[in-house]
Amino acid sequence: MAGHSKWANIKRQKARVDAQKGKIFARISREIIVAARQGLPDPAGNFQLRTAITKAKAAGIPQENIERAIAKGAGTWTGDGGAWETIRYEGYGPGGVAILMEAVTDNRNRTAADIRAAFNKFDGNLGETGCVGWMFEQWGMITLPLPADEEQFLEVLLQGETEEYELVTDEELGQTLVAVKVAPLGLAKLTGLLDAAGYPIESSELQWLPLNTVQITQPDQARQILRLMDALEDLDDMQTVAANFEL
């Protein structure tokens, strides 16, 4: 029985890993589709697409899948699939927490219904466009391992007109990373400078950052907010979720 139980646990664990990998593949593939649709289908001339492809390769997505996603975005794919678009959603979580979301979808009604159901389940409210967007600013964020030569690293950051940077700890990897903040229009330039200087970039993307934060001190409220955030991030169409709370 012990052997059977162990095998069953292994199968369940593998199923969870495969499911999570499938969600990641789908999410990044949609990002490639939208990037190719909004700009050139050539990564050399489309920074957003180049970034999405880099993310796809880091996640282990096969080249065939990447090429298919680019073809769908460019309109040259003859297989199945509708028109994909990026939509922003806004709402409030427990305690008046502001939540800003971006989804990539081929079915607006399905996506809105899924998001509304998550808000209703965890005491939140899906709001109208613009209700919380003014509480956030978009910035370019780059993360990379802590460089050995800080002086040389700072010179590159100055060339790229960096706003600021800070050290963060990746608890899963157990290593210190540098999070670099730059104006959205400067993200491509700074990423290129860091790449040319040989720095291994973990991620380079646009993020919505709150202008101010709400302090959450009640444990029950904190649990509801975290459950709501998890539920939103787990939605198939969701790309990014930003909120302005601090625990």
TrEMBL record:
Under the cellular component aspect of Gene Ontology, which terms does the record hold? cytosol
User: InterPro entries, from UniProt?
Assistant: Integrase-like_N (IPR017856), TACO1_YebC-like_2nd/3rd_dom (IPR048300), TACO1_YebC_N (IPR049083), Transcrip_reg_TACO1-like (IPR002876), Transcrip_reg_TACO1-like_dom3 (IPR026564), YebC-like (IPR029072)
Superkingdom of the source?
A: Bacteria
Main localization is cytoplasm
**Keyword flag DNA-binding:** yes
Q: Where in the cell is it found?
A: Cytoplasm
Query: What GO terms in the biological process aspect are recorded for it?
Result: regulation of DNA-templated transcription
Entry similarity comment = Belongs to the TACO1 family.
Instruction: State the name under which the record lists this protein.
Output: Probable transcriptional regulatory protein RIF25_11255
Species per Swiss-Prot/TrEMBL record: Pseudocalidococcus azoricus BACA0444
